[in-house]
Amino acid sequence: LSFLTSPRKGSLASMHVTKKDDFDFVFYVPLQNINERKLYDATMDSWKAKKTGKFSVRQLDDVEIHEFATKDCTFSWALLGNVWVGSFTPFLVEDIIRVYGEGNNTSFKMKIADVYKMPKLKNDAGNLYVHLENFSSWLSIFVPNASPDFIKSFGKAALLDIKAGEQNLILNGFSLDDPAYESILSVFSDQSPTSFSLKQLVSSRTVMLASYGISDGALFGKKLSNSSKRSASVKDTLNQLAKSLRLNFDGLYSSIGNELGVCYVESGKQSLSKILLVETNDTKDWIKILHALGEKFSTDTIFYEPFANYEIREIPLYQFPSKIFAPFVTGFDHSYYTVINNTIVIGEELEQLKEFLNDIDREETWGKSVSQNKFLETTLLESNISLYVNTPRIWNILNGVVSDKWQRFIKENRNEITTAGMGAIQFSHLNQSFYTNVSWLYKEPTATSVAATERTKTVVTGFSNLLSSQPIVVRNHADKSDEVLVQDSAYQIHLVSSKGDVLWTKQLNGSIIGDVVQVDYFKNGKLQYYFATQGTLHILDRLGNYVAPFPITVKAKDIEFNSVIDYDHSKNYRFLIADKSGKLWMYDKEGKNLEGWNPKNVEDGLFAPAEHFRIKGKDYIIAIRRDGKAYLLNRRGETLKGFPLALEASPSGDYFLETGSNQENTYFVVVSRDGFRIKFNLLGKVQSRETLLKTTIEARFKLVNENESKSYMIVRQEPKGLVLFDVNGKEFLQNEYIGLNNTQVQYYDFGAGRIYYIITDRVQDLSYVYDAQLNLLSSPPIEAFGVALRPLNSDKATVYLTYEKSLLIKGLY
């Protein structure tokens, strides 16, 4: 290997597909003088003398092929003129010999001859020559279903200079269009590069972003309309729509500002959801046409939903964004849109669009991120095509699409793979070619010893009284740092900084019931803490002072559950209280008990907090009793048709909402203590009742939601251990130490494959923390009765622990 990798002027390496799921290299070393030939002879003689393998010689077309074979691999080499050629795949050396014998007529260089005429930098690390058709075949090794045409559409070939820094790799050069193939690049042959201004609207959860710089929208639209890639059926559809509705689609293209972007965001279950961003000079043309389509194709009423400061509407036309912008935009079986300043925002999933808008409102975007902006400074500030890849977030998605072999590779080499940071591939039109820039960040792998040292760093905060609550992690709205609330046995609540400093202490009248929820009471971006104690509702600001008119005394004296409702994210909060007898009260921001909820009586205690869901613009409040009787209520507390529904089982743990496209295929999922998974829809129909696997009659089950309800898992406890099952009923983790002890199980998915499972034995006060690869990160188990987790960065997390009189904060690697 030292011979192959030592730098020599004029040396080459070529990459080749060798199997449907594998590839290998050929190495070329020029022997330009007698000294290099002597070094070559000495090296080859030393290989032949090794006793660790078998040496042999064979011939092909009068060329000697030397081979050294061990039980693990075979290395072959040959001398062609004054060039030494070698590979770990013998038939690749044979291919090189054949090409050499045919006089270079079929060589790689001949196929992309024009690229070799492009200018090159001197004294750089080297040059990278890319044949894009072959490159697409190479990509299919990892992702079998990848479309080769997609890569070919970026032209014929590229020549890139290599620059390697301490923390980044930069490839820049030129790409050539292929006149014989209508490429994506050709659409931009008359466009000037534009700046990346959409970064202010790109959610931090974005895995990939395709950005297209458009200086002349009318010309861009004309090229798309005349493109051979646009099917005749799409052209007919647009022509018919324009004629019947008297719409001018050409005007949409003309009004495009400088940029078109497609964001791919994580949407759970290792899948991506698309958000289209269209920057416009005037949103009126777009709104006029989108509204007209809604009026024309809505089968019942036009879908409209207020959300925070936005108005979300539906485009009830199958794949409309794809029809307008193919091949740059695909999919969008469903389309929901809104407007932000001069940008049209279209999402293919309603809930993902809402999450995207939430991220923008919370300023959790690329434009507000210091690290993202630092990376963007290493890229082209103006371009025509840019593909930005949030590499730390991509591995979880790839796990679901790459071939089995490379899934194993990713898992086995995760520490090295996760050193890759943000990346970008960009094309800018310049004269008759496209200037090409590839920029990728990376860092050194974390050494095991360093990780172990960091993991042992712990911040400890001591208190006078025993702590009685879970650690409740909250966000400091001023600097966006994490802080933590804890309560002690004297009913005092303490706010602690991430450095372990107690910022303030407040005496309460009892134990906090349920969660502490951060609210923006004054709608100004500043956050307060809402919670309940017996008979009292509280809102404290971040300095520990009460927000008027709180604290508020309420009629409910035996509170069991407490929820916050914000119907349309307008921050007009409602506070929903449930007592142990099944009475439900709802209060507004001023503490007024609302009509229909004074109280609403479901006549028995609930098994989990009552919650609000907005589904396709309609509001639903679900309340399920301990005996399995489910109530679905509207905002006025009225029971909806089909309810109450008797599930004929006692649910345990949480419940989960599987959102569909209508009332019939949207399901609530519950798991009964004795082992049934039950799904029922919004019409009061039980869709399924599935028997879960158990090996003993003592087994008990419960459903556990992911921390932000992205998914759920099923927990089974038996005397011989605790087992976790995924949504498909597949067992994936077993803990043999807990048995039937009282247990809390938590499930966190922070995106980018950062998944954690926490099992806390409440009898022994021991907690077990597992990562996505099911590695036990807490060995030995952590002594704690309360555990909370927050992401730290791409591959780390911070764990907060309460134990006896102490709060502990430590890194988790």
Please tell me about this protein's structure.
By secondary structure, the protein is of the alpha+beta class. It has 18 helices and 53 strands. The strands form eleven sheets. It has a 13-stranded antiparallel β-sheet with strand order 7-8-9-21-20-19-11-12-13-17-16-15-14, with helices on both faces. Strands 1-2-6-5-4-3 form a six-stranded antiparallel β-sheet, with helices on both faces. A four-stranded antiparallel β-sheet has the order 22-53-52-51. A hairpin with a 2-residue loop joins strand 51 and strand 52. It is globular, with a radius of gyration of 31 Å. The chain starts with a helix and ends with a strand. The model is unreliable at 448-454 (pLDDT under 50).
Count of DSSP strands: 53
Identify low-pLDDT runs: 448-454
Q: State Rg.
A: 31 Å
Classify the helix fraction into a percent range. Answer: 10-25%
The biggest beta sheet reads:
13 strands, antiparallel
Q: Give the termini distance in whole angstroms.
A: 33 Å
User: How confident overall, as mean pLDDT?
Assistant: 90
What coarse outline follows from CA principal-axis ratios? globular
**Order of strands, widest sheet:** 7-8-9-21-20-19-11-12-13-17-16-15-14
Give the helix/strand class.
Answer: alpha+beta
Count of discrete alpha- or pi-helical segments spanning 4 or more residues: 18
Strand content: 35-45%
Helices and strands in order:
Blueprint: H1 2-5, E1 12-19, E2 22-30, H2 34-48, E3 54-60, E4 63-69, E5 74-80, E6 83-87, H3 90-101, H4 108-111, E7 126-131, H5 132-142, H6 148-152, E8 157-164, E9 168-176, H7 184-187, E10 194-195, E11 206-213, H8 217-225, H9 232-245, H10 249-254, E12 256-266, E13 272-280, H11 283-297, E14 304-307, E15 310-314, H12 320-325, E16 336-340, E17 343-347, H13 350-361, H14 370-376, E18 382-383, E19 385-389, H15 391-398, H16 404-412, H17 414-417, E20 420-430, E21 433-442, H18 448-456, E22 458-462, E23 472-475, E24 482-487, E25 492-496, E26 502-507, E27 513-519, E28 528-533, E29 536-540, E30 552-553, E31 559-565, E32 574-579, E33 583-587, E34 600-601, E35 611-615, E36 618-624, E37 629-633, E38 645-646, E39 656-658, E40 667-671, E41 676-681, E42 686-691, E43 700-705, E44 712-718, E45 721-725, E46 731-735, E47 743-749, E48 755-761, E49 766-770, E50 782-783, E51 786-793, E52 796-803, E53 806-812
Antiparallel strand pairs: 1-2, 2-6, 3-4, 4-5, 5-6, 7-8, 8-9, 9-21, 10-18, 11-12, 11-19, 12-13, 13-17, 14-15, 15-16, 16-17, 19-20, 20-21, 22-53, 23-24, 24-25, 25-26, 27-28, 28-29, 29-30, 31-32, 32-33, 33-34, 35-36, 36-37, 37-38, 39-40, 40-41, 41-42, 43-44, 44-45, 45-46, 47-48, 48-49, 49-50, ...
